[in-house]
User: Fold this.
Amino acid sequence: MREVKTLDVSHLPPYEISSQAPLWWGQLFITFIEGTMFSILIAAYFYTRLRMDVWPPPGDQFPHIGLPTVSLVLIILSAVGSYWASEAAKRADRMGVIWGLLLNLVLAGAALILRIIEWHSFNFNWKTDGYGSYIWAFLGLHTFDYISDLVFTLVLLVIAMFGRLGPRQRVGVHVDSVVWYFIVLIWIPIYIVVYWGPWLVGTQQ
Amino acid sequence: MTATQDIVPQTQNQAEDLENLNRVWRHPRGVLGWLSYTTHQAIGMRYIVTAFIMLLAGGIEALLIRTQLAHSNNTFLGPDHYNEIFTTHGTTMMFLFAVPMMEGMAIYLVPLMLGTRNVAFPRLNAFGYWMYLGGVLFLYWGVFTNAAPDMGWFAYTPLSGPQFTPGKRTDIWAQMITFTEVSAMCVAAEIIATVFKMRAPRMSLNRIPLYVWSMLIQSFMVLFAMPAIMIASSFLLSDRTVATHFVNPAEGGDPLLYQHIFWFFGHPEVYIIFIPALGFASAIVSANCRREVVGYTAMVLSQIANGFIAFGLWVHHMFATGLPQIGEAFFTASSMMIAITSGVQIFCWLATMWTGRIRLTTSMHFIYGFIAIFALGGMTGVILASVPLDLQAHDTFFVVGHFHYVLIGGAVFPLFGAFYHWFPKMTGRLMNETAGKLNFWVLFVGFNLTFFPMHILGLKGMTRRIYTYPPEMGWDQLNMLATIGAWIIAIGGLIFLANVFWGRRYGTVAGNNPWDAESLEWAAASPPKNYNFEYLPVVTSRAPLWVPPEDRTFVTGLRNDRREVLVTTLMDAEPHHRYVLPRPSIWPFLTGVAVTIGFIGSVFDAWYITFGSILTGICLIGWFWPSRPVELEP
Ligand code: HEM
Ligand SMILES: [Cu+2]
Assistant:
């Protein structure tokens, strides 16, 4: 038999929890998609604004800043929990994962409640006018992502508490943190558009 | 060329390795098993077959259109039917044939060309296919229940708004978009991840095959273009179903906004269809000229440039809307700029042919046809990019002629070349070359006969989307010519189909590498085993199979008793870690069903969004639920 050159890879680790993992990249691209979607929505918002004389249309209340800002701070802080959990996942530290995810869930949950309270105070909805449509689209889409990821985080937490915390689950925790950073990051421009937008580019009544 | 089997490493337990591989990668059995496949060859083939059926459907619709237009005052189709049929034709061809076909080919070929065993996310891949199939079934369910869309393939408001298009036609169209875009985005994400992280060891970025480059660029374009159409169709759908005010002028929405967003997607869409075809051309040209394509770097850079410029062209579809002059001038310039980067590529192929030893296979015929037709389509494109000319030609058959030259010449001809080129890889047998050349000439003649006269008709003032015309216009002869051409194209299609069935049955057995081509897919068996390669190759050149067999290197040490692949670094593809792919699973299918229920239901009642989301959530938990721990022990 002819001698054949080989490259032995049996010594390489059988999994990886970092930006070298394909899953991490896949998740990154999903965030590109969502990021583009929100960017287009923001562009459409300003496009529509430019074509209106009065913004928000007469009758629509101006947003409050207070509650949403508290909520924003909580959301940003909740990313600390994600970070904590994902670092712990890399070390296979079960307690760290549990506490990190818990912190993430509590803060994010609180922020969500504040967001919903503020949302309830609107005196317009998506049917009222274009302004209403945009605000509801921003909030609706982002909250959809937000809740989806909270559910996913909750499942991870349950697994971490009662199940196996094997490599696959730990990669899951890590990837979940990437998703969460995105959800937090993209919220910042949306927050500005939704709650500051009318004050910055609107017409004062 | 020696068979690859002779030159793989002879480890002591080769027989056992093989047995393990065969067992681990075997498809699950039964109907449920069939719904659970996750290998890229199977999923890719499903895309290809489904998209081909869509090509036939779109083709039949095209024949109906042409038959109606054959002579003046024809009553073969009434105006309503005509509207439905041209809309369904355009929609089918763009969303259900062209893009998914390119994706299917990529799903099939890219892992093979990269020297790996599957795409990075096999279950996502399966899910993507079910989404696509959902879109196909939804649209055609509409077509067969008298709810085909009838407002043109770009569904401009106000025509597509609730006032002018009541009923469900437009809603079905808009939601079909959502299905296909979800599928496209799944494929894009996994193709990029596969190309970035799962290349054969040492296949550094400057060694990946040009086809893979083209798919990489195309996938990035999908990531940034498809969200736009999702927004556009969602705006339209929510304006229609829940009375939002985005793009419906009757409610204070802005129809031009819809056009902007649509074409921000719509122009890149053309490149999404056509850039993979450039990749086919490169692969076919290098295999048949028996040398690497001249100007690898120029080729890659000009394709990347194309990808960028494509996002700066969309307004040339809107010149007739009276946008500010300065803006239009900008878009004219960038539209002409793209001719430069496209030209670079054409010259690279010509140089390759010039300096190579050409073998005139059927696939080469299709590449010549492509270059000729595409150059003409590009020329009329540059004409249309100039505002004053566009204002004359807008919405006439000149435009219809132009974009079929680009779409069919630029994408369908290379695609047929690709079919002839890779058919032996996919089936193990060659198609008949003589019939193939006949196939080419019939298509080529039929094509030009159909679409060349359309330019003249357009210049004579025949507008598109009219179901008939009076005899005084003097358009009869040219239209008859075009109709005859369309039927000749249909004959070409039949020859192709016959050749496929003949080839599968009686074709010459191909062996691994019938064309003596250079890229890795030709090292796998024909058709490839589910695991593609017994030992993954190490790549030391841009043309790995033109390296003498004794200089090749193979990877050993991957575990074969589970679906394990190798992850390599982004730039240089140094081995980094091993990665266990998930096993086949029914959950992607069930998730697909759940999402389908949500999507279809929400067209009728918004509550289905909530219902579908909950169902989907449950399925996703099932999907990601950890499998048996044995999977990941080192
Ligand atoms: C098989 C040969 C084909 C023939 C004979 C054909 C014929 C036609 C004709 C006559 C029209 C104009 C209808 C009208 O405006 O009244 C049309 C429209 C169109 N075709 Fe084709 N076509 C063919 C293949 C394709 C392919 C392969 C694609 C895309 C990949 C395509 C994409 C379109 C689109 C997007 C429209 C515009 C529909 C609309 O106006 O809404 N066609 N086709
Ligand atoms: Cu364009």
